[in-house]
Write a structure and sequence with these properties.
The protein is built from 11 helices and 17 strands. It has 407 residues and is an alpha/beta fold. It folds into 3 domains: 206 residues, Alpha-Beta Complex (Spore Coat Polysaccharide Biosynthesis Protein SpsA, Chain A), CATH 3.90.550.10; 64 residues, no CATH class; 85 residues, no CATH class.
Length: 407
């Protein structure tokens, strides 16, 4: 397609070089006519990024908002897109995500987020108000929809999968550095809503988000600290004019919400009773700290560095679908790795003669879906359904076709 806006894809990474390598490997398969990649990261991660044709920005502070602003300041594209280092995009993700910006009224766009199993949605649209109350947003599952934000219902798009018109986000001052982690995109969405921004929700712009271990989360995805969640909640409420009574109510609602999360951890055997209570205490301490955190103004970010745009190489890549039975896995996986090393975009489907649930993930440079031929891959599926191999393959491949082949 011609006439598309230039795009700066910004990826922030800190002390997760393996995640970044996986992310950048998937990014190298993107199909978009004019995009650059900026990696904002610590020295070890930048050494990983050096193997890819990206622009490197050194940043080693635990503040994702400030890191994203460093990326925006260096971005030369008309649109800035964001992807987390523990997420991987489908090849046509950026193509779908940025297409709505051909409409000059569109200020922002967000896609759908697939969760841990690569098949179920972690995020598929919603709204949020200035008191951080969320609500679902009815959107079509197979078409772009446009929504006018308002102060009562900001359109919520997630930082793991979003894009903004650069001049719009720069004029607003970018992300709020008072939010080192959590609600960074929500607070920005609220400022956009105050301007009545037009936001596109793009279901076919999909990324898979496998939340990685970090300073606030264990490898089994158990949260270990709620300090930043509490602090960012208080800061965002203050930034958007909440009264003392509204702040107190929001604090109580947060504690109820996080108590439910802690109880779920206890039931799953992930936390003891004492550890669950200690986790809740971090939320309260964080919220109280956020009530006294400085809230400096957010000055506009500098104009784009138009001379620095470095288009990402776009070699022709064949699309290959491999499929077989579970006992053929070793041979087919080796074939998939060889094809991926030869720059093909590869999808591998492996079905066993069982009713095992399905999983889909990106590794070794290719996408792989595994599970039982008769098993469940969609939440609404029955636990067992008879399928012929060819019919099952067609059904599973068709679910993701828009992310891999242009129509």
């Amino acid at each position: 397609m011609t006439g598309r806006a230039t795009v700066s894809l910004i990826i922030v990474s800190r002390h997760r070089p393996d995640c970044l390598h996986r992310c950048l490997t998937a990014v190298s398969l993107l199909d978009h006519p004019a995009f650059e990649v900026l990696v904002v990261a610590d020295p070890v991660s930048l050494a990983v990024a050096a193997a890819f044709p990206v622009r490197a920005i050194a940043f080693d502070e635990p503040n994702i908002s400030a890191a994203r602003n460093a990326g925006i300041a260096a971005a030369a594209g008309e649109v800035v897109a964001f992807l987390d280092d523990d997420a991987v995009p489908e090849p046509l993700w950026l193509h779908h995500l940025t297409a709505p910006f051909e409409n000059p009224q569109v200020d922002a766009a967000g896609g759908f987020v697939l969760g841990w199993n690569g098949l179920s949605f972690e995020w598929a649209g919603g709204t949020v108000d200035r008191l951080l109350r969320t609500a679902p947003l009815e959107v079509p599952a197979d078409a772009v929809s446009l929504h006018r934000s308002s102060t009562d219902a900001a359109i919520e798009i997630k930082g793991v999968n979003c894009a903004y018109r650069r001049r719009t986000i720069a004029a607003l001052g970018g992300f709020d550095p008072a939010l080192a982690y959590y609600l960074d995109e929500t607070e920005l969405n609220l400022r956009l809503a105050a301007q009545g921004a037009l936001v596109a929700v793009v279901p076919e712009a999909r990324v898979q988000h496998r939340k990685a271990e970090g300073p606030r989360r264990r490898a089994d995805r158990t949260v270990t600290s709620l300090v930043d969640i509490g602090a960012s909640s208080a800061v965002t409420l203050r930034r958007h004019g909440a009264t003392g009574e509204e702040i107190a109510r929001a604090r109580a609602e947060m504690i109820v919400r996080e108590r439910g999360r802690a109880a779920a951890y206890r039931r799953a055997g992930q936390l003891s009773a004492a550890a669950a209570e200690a986790l809740l205490a971090t939320a309260e301490a964080g919220f109280d700290a956020g009530l006294t955190r400085d809230l400096p103004p957010l000055p506009a970010l500098p104009p784009p560095d138009t001379g620095g745009f470095r288009p990402y190489p776009q070699p022709d890549r064949p699309r290959v679908i491999l499929s077989g039975r579970s006992w053929q896995a070793r041979r087919l996986r080796q074939e998939a790795r060889d094809l991926a090393a030869a720059r093909a975009i590869v999808q591998l489907y492996l079905f066993s003669p069982t009713a095992l649930f399905h999983q889909r993930r990106f590794s070794d440079g290719y996408w792989q879906q595994t599970g039982g031929l008769f098993g469940k891959s969609v939440r609404t599926d029955r636990f067992f359904r008879f399928w012929r191999f060819a019919s099952r393959l067609l059904r599973e491949e068709s679910r993701f076709r828009s992310g891999f082949r242009k129509t």
